[in-house]
């Protein structure tokens, strides 16, 4: 079947998105070869216009009817989403709005839908609207009408949905007060690094951190002062992560109260001890301002690294906690590991 060729398209003054000229099928001059198919298509489209014109236009979803050459119909929601006046989309092509990275995917989906009956394709793509981009899910299916193939394109704007999903996911893995990862996520990631060590010997070290005399901070400055100390401590640790050597994916997490962990994949214990000592010195220099008051704090750190006797993240954390206990009993404000620092 020879494709429908668009030689001329004249859109008269649009009186409303459901007016005669908001549909593009009566405005085409057709080449001779495709005239029979085009007449069948026009008949089907005209029937849909008479029976469902208003209903299609007020549907709460963005809807396009699309031939191989371009858009023949767009409803009101599609006009709003693509920021176009009623009738302005007629003759334009869906690919005109698709971001460059998604062009091949959407082009293939549209071509497949036009070529095959009963074939529905759903793809996600960035649509460029004015100066913004919206992430949309495009559901494309060929219409069961005779004549020139036409596809129905339903466009769902999922930008806000994806943002909400990302925010919800963040809430499930991040501690609300400090912005550090939470205990659950630390154990999940830590278990992956332990598995990697057991599989191929990839180095992995862990530091357990505990703010010294935290109860005294709470007693002296109230719980608000304690929260302030936790937030300043976490901010300092987050700022420290990008400066760490030999570990480009270190992770900081709060696992309870004033207890934190620092996951250091790819790092042997000697390097982990050196980095932990550098962090300890930075925390010691930190001044926390709370209202008109200020105070300083220190941290004790226990370090442990994967070895043959460690079979789980819980085992590794127990070793790091044991070294943390030793640091506390040796006078606090120090780093202790299985090796001397």
Low-confidence stretches: 1-33
Spatial strand sequence of the major β-sheet: 2-1-5-4-3
- Corresponding CATH architecture of the largest domain: 2-Layer Sandwich
What percent of residues are in strands? Answer: 15-25%
Shape: elongated
| Class of secondary structure makeup | alpha+beta
Q: What number of structural domains do the residues give?
A: 2
Which class of the largest domain in CATH terms? Alpha Beta
Number of strands: 12
Largest sheet: 5 strands, antiparallel
Proportion in helices: 40-55%
- Count helical runs: 8
Order of helices and strands: HEEHHEEEHHEHEEHEEEHE
Please tell me how large the radius of gyration is: 32 Å
Average residue pLDDT: 85
The N- to C-terminal Cα distance equals 78 Å
CATH homologous superfamily placement of the largest domain: Reverse transcriptase/Diguanylate cyclase domain
Could you name the CATH topology of the largest domain?
A: Alpha-Beta Plaits
Protein name: diguanylate cyclase
Enzyme class: transferase
EC number: 2.7.7.65
GO molecular function: diguanylate cyclase activity
